Amino acid sequence: MVIKRTKRKTGHVTLSDVARACQLSVSTVSIVLSQAPLSQRLAATTRERIHATALRLGYHPDAYARSLRSRSTKTVGVLAYDMSDPFCVPVVRGIEEGLQPADYFSLLVDAQTERKLFDSSLGMILERRAEGVIVIASWVFEEANLLADVKKNHVPIVIVGRDLTERRIPSFLVDNHAGGAMAMNHLISLGHRRIAVIRGPDDLFDSQPRWAGAQHAAAQAGLRLDPRLVVSLPNRVDPTSGFDGGRLLAREMISSTREFTAVLAFDDLTALGVVRGLREEGLRVPEDCSVIGFDDILPAAVSTPGLTTVRQPLRTMGSLATQHLLEALQQSSQESVSATNPRMLAPELVVRDSSAPPPARRRDRSAPTSQHPAAGPARRAKPPRQ
Amino acid sequence: MVIKRTKRKTGHVTLSDVARACQLSVSTVSIVLSQAPLSQRLAATTRERIHATALRLGYHPDAYARSLRSRSTKTVGVLAYDMSDPFCVPVVRGIEEGLQPADYFSLLVDAQTERKLFDSSLGMILERRAEGVIVIASWVFEEANLLADVKKNHVPIVIVGRDLTERRIPSFLVDNHAGGAMAMNHLISLGHRRIAVIRGPDDLFDSQPRWAGAQHAAAQAGLRLDPRLVVSLPNRVDPTSGFDGGRLLAREMISSTREFTAVLAFDDLTALGVVRGLREEGLRVPEDCSVIGFDDILPAAVSTPGLTTVRQPLRTMGSLATQHLLEALQQSSQESVSATNPRMLAPELVVRDSSAPPPARRRDRSAPTSQHPAAGPARRAKPPRQ
DNA sequence: TTCTGGACTTGAAACGTTTGAATAGTGTAG
DNA sequence: CTACACTATTCAAACGTTTCAAGTCCAGAA
User: Fold this and answer.
1) Of A283, A353, A377, B163, most Cβ neighbours within 10 A?
2) What is the CATH number for B324?
3) Burial class for B7, CB neighbours closer than 10 Å (0-12, 13-18, 19+)
């Protein structure tokens, strides 16, 4: 018996296609396929028949129609400032992990560090009726206009990588101050006294607290940093420009007459740039100069020497933020309890091979050759499993 | 005058909210806000009023309702095998670039290299009524069952990074054979004769053609590769495991008595692992041994020495695939012209600092750039530690 | 006065689902 | 024979849009 095909407007198999094939009503089929409680009362044979037909036809329920009807999309919008930045990837993974058990789906949008894309992306997310929004924005994120719209539509929002609690947005980020101090302390404890610092660009939120932390740690240790050895990256255009910045600044600093035995870089890409710059000037890392980064992104782990760095728990940040958002969604009716202070996660020192005691200056410190002096407990360099 | 708020079931501002606020019908508001041709006939003042109100209330059209009605979602599903692999990121960027001008939206799903996620992700994409699907799968991708469903629903599909034309799926990938040859030729032209090769894992599609290309190039140059210097990576569990694989294989090869002056690695992460392994055995790159990778992912560019590699035009692959898909969507009615042979893109040699002529055997080649501990040329030396 | 016709606005159906209420069919008890 | 309680299935309304056909005005023409 040939099933009459009414005009197919779209290529998709619909509920009524299945119903027609089964000689049943749409309702019946829906009840069975959506596992509604009523389906228990249906004849087992019918259920079987429906399932088989659906499978045969390759039926997939239309999420649009379904969500329209049930007014729940099970979707969370994720707005990443730039997926090309290795920073974002682990955060997104963490979010995914948080979402999965709750059967939520992530709507990932990449703003590609373009101001205008930011607003339009947020618009997309709103239009797609995400029930909540997670913004990943360690990077510039000039107060998108649409943030107000998000509120108007009562969509809870959280942010990862930046403190926006002043605007009553729950924020999850690493404790940059502690991280800066941690990096500085590591260098100091290795014996470095002449430490160069490459601060982040001024327009970047993280720059200030990291620098403050480093300064604080230096002061604690009774160390005065030479202002001529403190430089800043220029404001960035794209997330990977830190590499060139670090490389050039390192070379400039060497050209100046100031001496230093270690460089504390703003982030990993900058640090890798420094390593390159030092190398180009004929200096070995870590024998002649130590370098420490910040973030612990993949390239830090797989370069040689492995880069000593301060690790941000990116994955955890992502999943904690997600957790928080999901909880807010539960108590949707009550005003979402917007935390008034940021959730700061502890950074972790990852010692690899780019840091070592300073070269012996006067005293004859035996063989500054290939021996990578084991600094601290010397964790084995593994790629970050974020 | 207070606008009476009927019970808000969802937090979202809807068309009828705006209509009520304007004292107009839903139709009118819809016509204006969706820029329908009819809106030209409406009083300018009315239009103005509607726009203002919509803006004030923070109205965003419901993509679900809209798509349901218009039966077009303007969405393309993108299924990436693993976003943690730096390989995927540029491809996705390329896709994004292709999609944007056509006003299409990407629905990005990350399968996280988990077999079961693959099918369920494809299901998600189907349910969200993507009009087409792009699969990024250089990585294992064991013939998802749902691929059949994609066809049943008449959703065009293309694949990036793997040849699936035998299953009549348009495929976009780099010319692996040419790439393998290119890498080999580079090493040969530098003067290397004893070249070690680390092949990819057997379960990975790219492995075979790259190896064949390398072999072919060697044969062309009258070079016989020592079988004992040809090893394979173990089958992988996660995308970054190539690093450890390369590192261990490099150390093993050095431990064996075979000599070599260059390593042709399957991909960049493997190559970076090799660099690490060589270094741990006291060898300098490129002075004692050259290393070449494949892919040109970010870590290859920012490590020191910069990794010489064969670049895949990932971004281009992404945008070409998108182009092709969009064209197929245009002529939706006619059978999508599934190409019968893969579109192979030319790789590009990127020469950085990890490749150089082989060390002079007897003569004293004083490497000018060599700041590394002088460890005997080309043969094993004392490992720095452990 | 009624008609014509433009200018402006609205009614109602449809998209594919879900779901509470309603219907037919079938025994079984009163 | 009616009433009742099942069981198995269907009706119909709703979700927020879009869009075509059909209003309502009101001025000017017949």
Assistant:
1) A353
2) 3.40.50.2300
3) exposed
B189 and B161 in a common domain? no
What global pTM score does this model have? 0.89
**What is the rounded CA–CA span in Å between residue B159 and residue B374?**
48
Q: B48 and B107: one domain? A: no
Is the CB of B50 within 7 Å of strand D? no
Q: What is the DSSP string of A188-236?
A: HHTT--SEEEEEPPTTSTTHHHHHHHHHHHHHHTT-PPPGGGEEEPPPP
Distance A39 CA to C20 C1' (A): 14
Residues sharing a CB contact under 8 Å with residue B363, sequence separation 6 or more, in sequence order: none
Q: Are strands B195-199 and B262-265 parallel, antiparallel or unpaired?
A: parallel
What is the chain A residue with the closest CA to B64? A64
Within 8 A of B299 by CB-CB distance, chain A residues are 298-299, 302-303
Mark whether A222 and A259 lie in a shared domain. yes
**Is B4 a member of any domain?**
no
pLDDT for B337 equals 56
Nearest to B89 among A84, A105, A276 (CB): A84
Query: What number of CA atoms fall less than 13 Å from residue A17's CA on the CB side?
Result: 22
Confirm whether B243 is domain-assigned: yes
Q: Does A251 touch chain B (CB under 8 A)?
A: no
Residue from B18, B21, B26, B16 nearest B2 by CA: B21
Q: Chain A, 309-338: which have a CB under 8 Å from a chain B CB?
A: 332
> Structurally, how many domains does chain A consist of?
3
Task: Indicate yes or no: strand D within 7 A of the C-beta of B31.
Answer: yes
Contact flag A110-B96 (C-beta cutoff 8 Å): yes
Is A63 close to B129, i.e. CB distance below 8 A? yes
Tens-digit pLDDT profile for residues B263-296: 999 999 999 999 999 999 999 999 999 999 999 9
